[in-house]
Amino acid sequence: MRIETKIANFSNPLYLESGRILEPYQIAYETYGEMNEDKSNIVLVCHALSGSHHAAGVYEGEKKPGWWDGLIGDGKAIDTTKYFIICSNVIGGCYGSTGPMSPNYPSEHAFRFGFPVVTIKDMIHAQMHLLSKLGIYKLKAIIGGSMGGMQALQFGVDYPNLAEHIISLAATYATRPWTIAFNKVAIEAIRNDPRFENGNYKKDAFKEEGLSGLAIGRIAGHISYLSPQSMDKKFGRNYVSTDGLFELFGRYEVERYMEYNTVNFSKKFDPLSYLYIVKAINTFNLSRGYDSLFDAVSRIKAKTHLFSFSSDFLFLPEEMEHIYNMMKRDNKECTYKEIQSDYGHDAFLVELHLFEEYIREILD
After folding, report:
1. How many domains does the chain have?
2. For residue range 322-344, what is the model confidence (pLDDT) as tens digits?
3. Is 193 an annotated catalytic residue?
4. In this structure, what are the phi and psi dihedrals at residue 363, rounded to the nearest 5 degrees?
5. Is 312 a catalytic residue?
6. Domain check: are 118 and 200 in the same one?
């Protein structure tokens, strides 16, 4: 599989939904496979909150593959021997695209809280600029899960002639209070951590030890991404063998897992980017800018494929089914599958075997 990682620079302004302008800006992106002569084999992959443009393959000198490596590659469901795949880091991210820790041109100082609030609409608008720069005006498919699924749906609504297929997994039509409440834990934990310094921390300040506030917030996130059944299977009531049962801070295995994963995450993900991306998720509403949700989804021309997961408590199956029912009422070409899984929201990242053949069939 051929992998290329690049940075695209833009001097033309990016007009944001808030009325503010981002100029100049850059987008980090990665491509896999080869584009065919008539550019009819292009698949755009959109990442979730903690993802990046590195969706597949392994970088030289590293062991961990891209976040959807099980789905993207030679002979896999999104087959790089057939398709040319593009995945970009969203605006506001911290993996190469312009975000709050980027220099605020013409100053060399970082934007920090001076960075404008960005929305899912803004993220896909920036990606449209990238596609245009690459000379791409038609896509075979747009696919993503969670926040990536939100982007896929927003593309279908705002740019109805762009893609042949829209594939959205574990997403919703609008972020509901339950999810916003989980995100609030992360927001407040970050803001109230003294080392956060109201966003004035030094760049790479948390590379060695992480930021406790982000780690604590990420614990709330992890709870919402999993399910009671998946935690039972993974951890049971097992206790850490080196911790005493009657020590006050002795831990169950589930507690150690949360500590380890969230601290590691806080070492590599910028907390300001986390705040901005969570804001984009909280403000997501497919109907904003249109008369109603029905009016919004009626704009979609692509063949739309919706996937939910039965144990997803972050974005409930009924939310995706609601989109499906609206599209069918409007006689749109749309399919819906509720995947039976005990894993929770993160099933779209982990239990690929439950839906990868559906993806292959759609693309083929």
Report:
1. 2
2. 999 999 999 999 999 999 999 99
3. no
4. -70, -35
5. yes
6. no
Residue ranges in the chain modelled with pLDDT below 50: none
CA 278 to mean position of chain CA atoms:
10
Is there a catalytic annotation at residue 146? yes
> Can the peptide bond before residue 106 be classed as cis, meaning omega within 30 degrees of 0?
yes
Peptide bond before residue 24 is cis, with ω within 30 degrees of 0: yes
In this structure, the answer to whether residues 29 and 157 fall within a common structural domain is yes
Helix (H, G, I), strand (E, B) or coil at 100: coil
> Which of 68, 65, 10, 72 lies closest to 43, judged by CA?
72
- Which domain, by its residues, includes 236? 179-279
Residue from 88, 312, 322, 346 carrying the catalytic annotation:
312
CATH code, domain carrying 68: 3.40.50.1820
Same domain, 184 and 170: no
| Residue 67: predicted pLDDT | 97
The structure tokens listed for 245 are 């049962």
Contact 280, 309 (CB under 8 A): no
Q: Are residues 303 and 167 in the same domain?
A: yes
From the list 50, 52, 97, 146, the catalytic residue is 146
Give me the CATH number covering residue 269: 1.10.1740.110
173, two tokens: 């039509």
